[in-house]
């Protein structure tokens, strides 16, 4: 929790119940909220008075129906007058629909926890970091909303007037950006420090991928070895962890779990404070070549403007992670909008009252279906059934099936998307030889069927090899082989690939367990091997501004 996190205020007269509710709220909010609690209206206002910026940060207020010094509804009405932007909820045994702007929540810890996401999404921050205006419900709007959510940026969105221009205008700190690129937003929001070194700078280390492994390696390389590092990332820091709706519940130091977006935000804050780390967002790696002095060149393209260039590193860490599996369809027609490969909490607003399909039979698909079932009609489709999901999730799905909020189709597959600009439906059939097609009219399809390593760029074609591009050894599933997994592994350092000085860590590496903790550990361990490699090959370090260059100076002078 940081001092700029949104505030959630819980008011309940029973201290034992209050404690249980706070624990459940912290579990569901995963540390993204500043949770404060009070036993009465008087205590609640006293707690808010201790927060000078409560007017900007008060996002959610939850009160019991009966308080020792007032009625819960009267208390919330008073809050509504003082803090009109906050989301309000009352704990009740009734299931009536609120008509006065106050949500009603069943008075149980589990129901309170489940309500946190929709309540936060209903919050309309009075002083958001970003103010957007323009046509909502477009592919461009989806991309920007996804960016704001995954970077924990508070924002408001005002739809454009009918018949007005189609430009999206975003105001950040008083400056307006028209149809901004993600690179523009990274700079405007100062998510990373603006690099002082030019793109052609001879870095000690180039890191491909800003997921947990890449960010961990950058921190270790800077703090432990003194290497100058460049992180290149094609999208948003944090990797696939920021697209998961599941809490990371097995990471050291977070006993109640932590969301991927929160963990990424904390890691980025650490990296931002270190001068030796440069971050270049929206750069996508294209190839790997050998350069002079035993160094490497990584070809990159800027997704914002299409500019092509090369970056130089004495060593390279491949931490490019996974990319989502896509469906194999009868035809390759895919609508511009409506097909998604991650389900974020913010998607609940877009899908309210809609019919959607979730493809997949694992835990992520189950969590997404349960999330959407609160306000949408959900169809789940899985070729191999749903045996791979946790039993608790299976039970929750069965409960929603009984309530007719979720339809389950085991042994079926999606064969075609319908619609041009916007998805209008899908065609499905049994996974056997049956030719009978069924149509489901849906506005969105969430494809949650796992991922594959993002390594195609490391296996150049014949023309690429003729141009000097290097080939990294992969296994049959396209994961990167390192150290003892290589055919010729004698003398290889831990996490080193078949190319000397090129290392791999995280989900992209062979035998990965796809765990955040493992990726973080491998990133740091790979840097330990890089330190040994640099000591054996000091001449590869030519960045005279880095501490590592000065540290290995004596070795460089004695190197034959």
Descriptive report:
The structure is a single chain. Helices cover 29% and strands 24% of the residues. The protein is of the alpha/beta class and 560 residues long. α1 (15-29) crosses α5 and α11 runs parallel beside α12. It starts with 6 loop residues before the first strand and ends with a helix. The chain folds into 4 domains: 7-122, Rossmann fold; 130-185, no CATH class; 202-324 and 452-558, FAD/NAD(P)-binding domain (3-Layer(bba) Sandwich), CATH 3.50.50; 339-449, 3-Layer(bba) Sandwich (FAD/NAD(P)-binding domain). The model has no long low-confidence stretch (mean pLDDT 87).
Descriptive key words:
560 residues, alpha/beta, Rossmann fold, FAD/NAD(P)-binding domain, 4 domains, 7-stranded mixed beta sheet, 5-stranded parallel beta sheet, 16 helices, 26 strands, 24% strand
Short description:
The protein has 560 residues and is α/β, with parallel strands linked by helices. It contains 16 helices and 26 strands. Helix 11 (363-372) packs parallel to helix 12 (391-402).
């Amino acid at each position: 929790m940081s001092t700029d996190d949104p505030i959630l205020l819980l008011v309940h007269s029973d201290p034992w119940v209050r404690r249980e509710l706070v624990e459940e709220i912290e579990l569901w909010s995963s540390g993204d909220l500043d949770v404060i609690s009070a036993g009465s209206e008087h205590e609640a206002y006293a707690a808010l008075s201790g927060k000078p910026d409560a007017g900007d940060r008060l996002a959610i207020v939850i009160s019991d129906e009966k308080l020792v010094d007032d009625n819960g509804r009267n208390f919330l009405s008073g809050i509504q007058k003082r803090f009109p932007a906050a989301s309000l909820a009352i704990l009740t045994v009734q299931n009536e629909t609120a008509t006065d702007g106050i949500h009603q929540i069943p008075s149980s810890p589990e129901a309170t926890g489940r309500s946190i996401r929709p309540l936060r999404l209903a919050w309309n921050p009075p002083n958001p970091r970003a103010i957007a205006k323009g046509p909502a419900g477009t592919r461009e709007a989806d991309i920007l909303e996804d960016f704001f959510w995954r970077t924990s940026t508070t924002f408001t969105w005002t739809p454009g007037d009918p018949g007005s221009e189609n430009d999206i205008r975003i105001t950040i700190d008083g400056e307006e950006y028209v149809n901004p690129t993600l690179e523009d937003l990274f700079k405007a929001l100062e998510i990373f420090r603006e690099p002082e070194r030019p793109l052609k700078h001879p870095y000690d280390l180039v890191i491909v991928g800003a997921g947990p492994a890449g960010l961990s390696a950058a921190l270790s390389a800077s703090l432990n070895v003194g290497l100058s590092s460049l992180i290149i990332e094609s999208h948003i820091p944090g990797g696939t962890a920021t697209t998961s709706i599941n809490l990371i519940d097995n990471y050291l130091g977070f006993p109640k779990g932590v969301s991927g977006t929160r963990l990424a935000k904390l890691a980025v804050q650490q990296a931002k404070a270190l001068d030796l780390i440069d971050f270049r967002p929206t750069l996508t790696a294209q190839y790997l070549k050998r350069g002079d002095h035993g160094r490497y060149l990584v070809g990159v393209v800027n997704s914002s403007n299409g500019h092509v260039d090369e970056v130089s590193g004495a060593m390279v860490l491949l931490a490019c992670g996974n990319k989502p599996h896509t469906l194999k369809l009868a035809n390759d027609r895919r609508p511009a909008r409506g097909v998604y490969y991650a389900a974020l909490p913010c998607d609940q607003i877009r899908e309210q009252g809609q019919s959607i399909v979730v493809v997949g039979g694992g835990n992520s698909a189950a969590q997404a279906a349960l999330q959407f079932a609160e306000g949408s009609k959900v169809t789940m489709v899985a070729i191999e059934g749903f045996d791979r999901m946790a039993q608790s999730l299976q039970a929750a799905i069965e409960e929603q099936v009984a309530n007719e909020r979720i339809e389950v189709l085991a042994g079926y597959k999606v064969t075609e998307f319908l619609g041009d600009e916007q998805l209008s439906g899908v065609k499905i059939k049994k996974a056997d030889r049956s030719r009978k097609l069924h149509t489901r009219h849906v506005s969105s399809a969430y494809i949650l069927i796992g991922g594959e390593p993002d390594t195609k760029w490391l296996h150049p074609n014949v023309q690429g090899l003729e141009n000097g591009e290097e080939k990294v050894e992969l296994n049959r599933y396209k994961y990167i082989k390192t150290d003892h997994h290589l055919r010729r592994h004698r003398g290889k350092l831990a996490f080193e690939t078949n190319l000397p000085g090129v290392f791999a860590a995280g989900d992209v590496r062979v035998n990965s367990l796809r765990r955040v903790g493992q990726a973080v550990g491998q990133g740091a361990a790979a840097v330990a091997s890089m330190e040994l490699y640099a000591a054996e090959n000091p001449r590869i370090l030519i960045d005279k501004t880095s501490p590592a260059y000065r540290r290995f100076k004596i070795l460089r002078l004695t190197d034959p």
